Amino acid sequence: MPNPKGTPENLKKFVTDREEPLTEQWTLRITKTMKQRLNQVDDAREFCRQAIQKALDELEQINKQDS
Question: How many domains does the chain have?
Answer without folding.
Answer: 1
